[in-house]
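Mods, move this if it's the wrong board.
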Amino acid sequence: MFESARLPQNMDKKTFKKLEPQLREALLAAQLPVVEKQPFSTMILVDGLDGAGKGEAVARLYGWMDARHLVCNAYGELMDEARLRPPLWRYWRDLPPKGETAIVFGSWYQTVLRDWIYKKIDEDAFDKALTRIRRFEEMLANEDVLILKFWFYLPKKEQEERLKHIEKKHAARHVLADWAALKHHKKASEAGEKIILETSKGYAPWFVIPSQDPEYRDAALAQTVANAMKLKLEDGEPHSIAAPPVVGGLKRETAVDTIDLTEKLEKSEYEELRDKYQKKLSDLSDMKSLSKTGVVLVFQGNDAAGKGGAIRRVIRPLDPRIYKVHPISAPTDEEKARPYLWRFWRRVPAKGHFAIFDRSWYERVLVERVEGYAGHDDWLRAYNEINEFEQELTDFGYIVCKFWLAISEDEQLRRFKAREDTAYKQHKITDDDWRNRLKWDQYAIAAGDMIDRTSTHYAPWTLVSSEDKRHARIKVLKTICDRLEEKL
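Not the wrong board. Structure tokens:
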């Protein structure tokens, strides 16, 4: 995950200066009715990598909100008083009353995170700690505590530069721990991924904030807090699970937005590479070691992005006896009567076989989210359920390859019209396709959230530019061959 957070979201100082009064107004408009009516208390957890500017962001938040009803609780190493009690005691001690807001530094996640990084606990203890935290947060939420959890993300290169700058301004002792943490950037990011994936719930969502640009970072934090408090006050639920799609008029870029749609292949080069990778795929699928693994291929993307064409190039070199293509449409009455993953568990291949999904379980967080077929809590919890499903597959030895095929709005329109004008393609275009096109931006946001929340080290997404179909087909074939070579 963190794909979108790796993208530098820049806001110039002029835009920020114009936006600042609006942010202050929005925060106070959300905070003061809560102070007056006291329907719930708010806890804002600020976590993430060292050097990401957590302190600066909180200082700005203090300046924008009514500080009389705001407290900052910072936690470091356990002191004697806390060592003699259970781990969560000091957080219970400092819970804010209804109407008040607490900002938490060094939250209940930090001790677990550092113990894991420095190998003071094993994976089993790490998982048990996350389970305990989930129970704690659920109970708080049931007792009218609004929990907002922010992970400030900074790529390693930017983190190193930021820490060098901090070192110039402070004594070496002050940054020693930070420099030590820099050495563990990869492990900290992996642990952060696990924490976010397993503990982001509707009652206690995580918000991943890209922190390369201080103005964007602070605006995103303030806007998210204001929106969540306002929504909680209106209907009891915070209806946001990611940094807002638009901050100060600037659209938040996602990993999907970064796909280079100009990539192309000439016909002669395409044919040469197609033959090369189809032969390679055929050879790999004939290996005896394939009997020790199953292969699950997932194709998602914009309507008319060429999923079917890419799948046909994949299956051409395969023995028909070892693969099955599953075109996924709206669930049947039989499927609706069961949990949504049931119909996909039924299609899991035996080892030695391929299961190819033309659309998949990800429709839960795409179509069902955007069209309202799944409630907010249902599609929100689906991210974790999907990750756990895919981890079960990979733990059993399966290879899971997931492809997002992307095209532009203009190219989609051209392909839609071509389908209408071609008799043997007319079955591919439906009224639903045209309706979905009207919600292009909503689907783009949903796709970005999906990739952020479900691109894991065991089942990563491959983002494919499909503006040129030849380029897309080669990238898909090559990726599958590479993944099979790694495993077999």
